[in-house]
């Protein structure tokens, strides 16, 4: 067997292994209820409280309601007190759980001393690092983002620093007790370099790598750390996209994604979003990165926002 023949044999074997792994991953997602069965007391066994950043809207709000429904008291953090108070009232009336409100603007630098003080003494079993912002709601090339210098600081503070600092605050208690869950919200678009959302996408890649490294460091301590990377979810950030086959309501997405908490250090949160991730990664980057594709994306979002 010559060198070229051997090369193609190994290449073919690698392709087969790659698709076998994909098929196994899909089967694991499809049979999550059996393979990753969680007892009803799973979340309450982690601790008494769940902390959710960006908990007044969208996916964060949905996590807050879902975890309260599973027996946890909730701490919700965001920068708008009126929204926080309203959500706290609704969670309390709906579930009977305690809700603590912390007003925090994660685009700023100096919020964490206050947050740490507010969380002191709480038995925190679950942390959901959900808070995040787009540099611009209209897809834009990097240098075309309005108030770029300010937006750079805000995106790094909110999408990157908040994740790290909240983990620094909550993780020691979990390590001491030998149990806990940290869910870090990334984005499906981070699976490929995404022009027009370059800074946002890069910040979400940080979320994934930080989470995966942290899980490797603390898995033996009994702590589950997972990245969840959704595609279409109907939230304020996405302009309340109409739910359909691939766009889920925040409530449905959260409920589904929690089934895969033990499925690995990263999940897309649902079967349909997993398939979307595979498809997107199969598209040649020359197509995704073409000027025509970038123009189409901007036109599509402009029309949707305008409507």
Describe the structure.
The protein is of the alpha/beta class and 307 residues long. The chain is 53% helix and 13% strand. The protein has a 7-stranded parallel β-sheet, with helices on both faces. A two-stranded parallel sheet has the order 7-8. Helix 4 crosses helix 9. The longest helix is centred in the middle third of the chain and has 30 residues. The radius of gyration is 20 Å and the shape is globular.
* Helix content range: 40-55%
CATH topology: Rossmann fold
What is the typical, i.e. mean, pLDDT?
Answer: 89
Domain tally = 1
Summarize the structure.
This protein has helices spanning 3-30, 32-35, 42-46, 58-69, 81-95, 112-119, 148-177, 198-218, 250-257, 271-282, 285-288, 291-306; strands at 49-53, 73-78, 99-103, 124-129, 180-185, 223-228, 233-234, 248-249, 266-267. The protein has 307 residues and is of the alpha/beta class. The termini are far apart.
Output the keywords:
307 residues, alpha/beta, Rossmann fold, 7-stranded parallel β-sheet, two-stranded parallel sheet, 12 helices, 53% helix
Task: Map the helices and strands.
Blueprint: H1 3-30, H2 32-35, H3 42-46, E1 49-53, H4 58-69, E2 73-78, H5 81-95, E3 99-103, H6 112-119, E4 124-129, H7 148-177, E5 180-185, H8 198-218, E6 223-228, E7 233-234, E8 248-249, H9 250-257, E9 266-267, H10 271-282, H11 285-288, H12 291-306
Parallel strand pairs: 1-2, 1-4, 2-3, 4-5, 5-6, 6-9, 7-8
Helix pairs in contact: 4-5, 4-9, 7-8
């Amino acid at each position: 067997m010559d060198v070229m023949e051997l090369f193609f044999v190994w290449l073919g074997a690698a392709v087969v292994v790659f698709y076998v792994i994909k098929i196994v991953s899909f089967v694991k997602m499809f049979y999550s209820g059996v393979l990753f069965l969680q007892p009803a007391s799973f979340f309450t066994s982690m601790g008494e409280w769940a902390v959710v950043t960006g908990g007044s809207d969208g996916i964060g709000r949905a996590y807050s309601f879902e975890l309260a429904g599973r027996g946890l008291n909730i701490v919700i953090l965001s920068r708008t007190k009126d929204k926080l108070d309203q959500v706290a009232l609704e969670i309390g009336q709906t579930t009977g759980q305690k809700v603590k409100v912390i007003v925090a603007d994660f685009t700023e630098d100096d919020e964490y001393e206050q947050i740490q003080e507010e969380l002191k003494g709480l038995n925190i079993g679950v942390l959901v690092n959900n808070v995040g912002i787009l540099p611009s709601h209209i897809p834009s090339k990097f240098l075309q983002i309005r108030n770029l210098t300010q937006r750079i600081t805000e995106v790094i503070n909110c999408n990157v620093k908040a994740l790290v600092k909240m983990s620094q605050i909550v993780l020691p208690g979990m390590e001491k007790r030998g149990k806990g869950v940290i869910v870090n919200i990334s984005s499906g678009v981070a699976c490929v370099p995404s022009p027009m959302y370059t800074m946002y996408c890069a910040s979400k890649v940080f979320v994934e790598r930080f989470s995966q490294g942290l899980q490797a460091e603390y898995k033996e301590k009994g702590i589950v750390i997972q990245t969840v990377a959704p595609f279409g979810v109907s939230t304020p950030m996405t302009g309340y996209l109409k739910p359909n086959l691939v766009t889920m309501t925040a409530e449905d997405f959260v409920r589904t994604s929690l089934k895969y908490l033990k499925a690995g250090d990263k999940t897309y949160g649902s079967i349909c979003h997993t398939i979307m991730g595979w498809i997107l990664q199969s598209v040649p980057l020359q197509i995704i990165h073409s000027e025509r594709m970038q123009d189409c994306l901007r036109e599509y979002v402009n029309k949707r926002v305008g409507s």
